[in-house]
Amino acid sequence: MATATEKSTQTVTRNGAEILVESLIRQNAELVFAYPGGASMPLHQALRKHRDQIRTILPRHEQGGGFAAQGVSRSSDQVGVCMATSGPGATNLVTALADAKLDSVPLVAITGQVPQTVIGSDAFQETPIVTVCQQITKHHYLITAPDPHCTESVQATLRSIPRIIKEAFHVARTGRPGPVLVDFPKNIQLATIDGEIDFDPPMHLPGYRLESRSVADEQIKQVIAQIRRAKKPVLYVGGGVINSGAAEELTRFARKANIPVTMTVMGLGAFPGDDSQSLHMLGMHGTVYANYAVDEADLLLALGVRFDDRVTGKLTEFAKHGKIVHVDIDPSEMHKNKEAHIPIIADVKVFLQQLNAAFTDDDKPDTADWWTQIKGWKQKYPLAYQDAGDFILPQHAIAELCRLTQGRDPYVAVGVGQHQMFAAQYFRFNQPHRWLSSSGLGTMGFGLPAAMGVQAAHPDSLVIDIDGDGSMLMNVQELATLHCERLPVKILLLNNQHLGMVVQWEDRFMKGRRAHTYLGPIDHPEALGEGDGSHYEETYPDFVQIAEGFGITAAHVRSKAALEDALKTMIEHDGPYLLDVICPYQEHVLPMIPSGGTVREIIVK
Known about the structure:
The protein has 605 residues and is an alpha/beta fold. The chain folds into three domains: 9-194, 3-Layer(aba) Sandwich (Rossmann fold), CATH 3.40.50.970; 217-380, TPP-binding domain (Rossmann fold); 394-582, Rossmann fold (3-Layer(aba) Sandwich), CATH 3.40.50.
């Protein structure tokens, strides 16, 4: 047995995997969603060793782990972390990385890689994942030694791991956020080094420059001058406002200036949805009054947006009647899709702080007539849906869920499709970071694992996944994770037995011809568009049986009269719960501006 003196002088020996995990802990990572394999086993052994400091959650698919890590990032100030093995494990992360890139979500993905000496030899479970992901990551690393056969070279590489992880987190969260990939060969994971490691080394990012400069006073004066003269101003707000933490500053300015606010699907929650100044969402499935207001605006204050095609439609016709002030932290967004009259490259929060400080009551625009016009549009074109008797329309189910969860401040994740747009329309978000949607990439299967990540990060909060039956099947295996990890996510499954959004386009633009959009048996009349679709005697698959097979409590509801009680049971259940709501498939998400169309072509019925 070693004496006390001997213990105090013992040299600490660490391998590369242990150094990486300790580096994650030093970056305040509390959760990692990791699926093991041959090339990442040392990392999992290191995670096991540090399980009191960092919680490892085993998803049932790497894509689920990537979306769960996004759930952490999108709902908090933390950077989500996911991990996979080499080859197919790494490629299963690709969609989650692309999704994070398009939605500007900070993420650190770590992949095991085959030993450095066999990289490029088509070794077992080898893919060049850094090369694959170059265009869908903000930055990437492949941790290699200049000479893998030289001990000094390998140990120098081991000492660089804390710097790489520190840089990865810094790049992921700063500027315009995005995903960073770290590819980690197995030989470097297993290599050992004795002695102390510097876990807070200086970073070396010579090509990454963040200018935390203030906005020039002259630019602020120019913006205020435009606001003062405006008769029909509109605030057009995107996810950049949420990423910059500027929701409070935005709300203060909007109320001080009495300017209406419309939000992109990524910007929901940046301004309170139940505020009388909110025009809610704009764009393809935005409100009529939001789209009309932007179309007629003489001043568009575009904050943290990228003029996405789902917002603008035909670019030459979008907001062509007024001046555009565009504020964004990413210089590449300036004039990329739409020319700005006053382009300002800055953090939106910094801009709004300076604007609020300089803006006075004398600068308020005269918007009385503008508000009269907007209120008229709101009265004439409210979000509405028809009564369907005792059938449950998806809009009604979401509106009821919103009503019943008022005061609970829930987090809501969604899949992709009609249910996603219905949720954006009928669920009101009054705080940022409460709404999680795969908006740029539009990835089916996002909702369930994203909600899983949110629940892990916010264990005492109400977390809801509003999903569709098509999206649900994309990552249904994560029900096992909910059960095994004791994550009490509530799933509102709007089940219409179809790929609803594609069906809507078939109905609107393809004369209702069904082309593989019915999710039931091929010999069912609905498969050829010959059924009446009013109800289903049997639904396929039976999601209640599926959920129960995974250990999740579940129930069906088919009657609108029974919906409220069913929702209350789901909300109050102690643990994860799936409510399978059978809906007619004929509902369309309206309003709708056809792709590439203009506000003058908006479909309202």
